[in-house]
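Journal club side-thread
Mid-discussion, someone asked how the predicted structure for our own chain would compare to the paper's figures. Pasting it here so we can look after the session.
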Amino acid sequence: MTDAVRSVLALQAQEPAAPYLALWNRIDDFDPSDLDRALADGAIVKASLFRFTLHAVDANDIPWARAAMQSRARDAGYHGILDDAGLTAERFDELRERLSTVMAEPHDNTAIERVLSELVPESGDPARLWSALRVVGAFRHAPTTGPWSFGRRPAFLPCTVAADDEPAATAELVRRYLTAFGPATVADMSQFTILKRSALREVVESMADVVAVSGPGGSRLLDVIGGEPPTDATTATLPPRLLGMWDSVLLAYEDRSRVIPDEHRPHVIRRNGDVLPTVLVDGLVRGVWRASADAIEVRALEPLDDATLDDLDHEARHLRRLLADREPTVFSRFGRWWDRLPDGPTITIGS
């Protein structure tokens, strides 16, 4: 399970179901109980990382992933919040150690803020301080409840941390990003992580295992040595997929058209940042889907032939089996977007 997560660097985890659907799309005969166990055992953890949003990652990746994001954490003002609370580097380390002791068992936001008001009374705003510590201090979400291991009221545990070595950590991030999504550009890496392009470019130029390759139209892309870029032939043989919300492949590139045709982007990525469940055909988004109580409903954004619909019906039946015992109408709280899609027939599959 950890190898599968590592192969795509990280799984977007804002919605509890999202990592499960991401792995279901990538692992043959995926058993969701395997991910349940990995999360319960702490082999895979959920924390605020890239773009300061929630991701599920191999627990062993937390130290370098956290270190790589520290420059942006400073730019985003999180370190300034610590400064406002009078936390020098030494006091921060002491506070984190004391919090780690207190949080031997999961604590929710209210409990942690209560502890912080006692440990750092001079901060005056424990909620604001905790918002920074969640990012800078390496804390993870603790599994709490079903159906997808996490509920709507998060609880937290401390993560293992290591001494920060930002250049080395950023190099590992570049390496792992390209292994998952390469070939790509520095701009693509910046889009996925929100690290500054200048910082990424400086690290890339020092890496012997990253090489320039030729992209479409003679563009210059980067890849790891030995990387196998997709070709039109391999893309054309990809089976149709029903991707969950915020699937990482939809967020991996600055040039969204590599996966989402420009004319479909406003319907897939909403202005508030919601990324809808999508229908992927030949490696490109061709529609969106939602789960009803007894079927998967598809709103095609362009025509789908009968063979594709047959393949999607097969996928939908498998998806409904995954959802049946957990959340048959997964992502239903985002249903308002369905009513704002372009007019068109709803195709029912998997019933």
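Post-session note: The CA atoms of residues 176 and 282 lie 24 Å apart.
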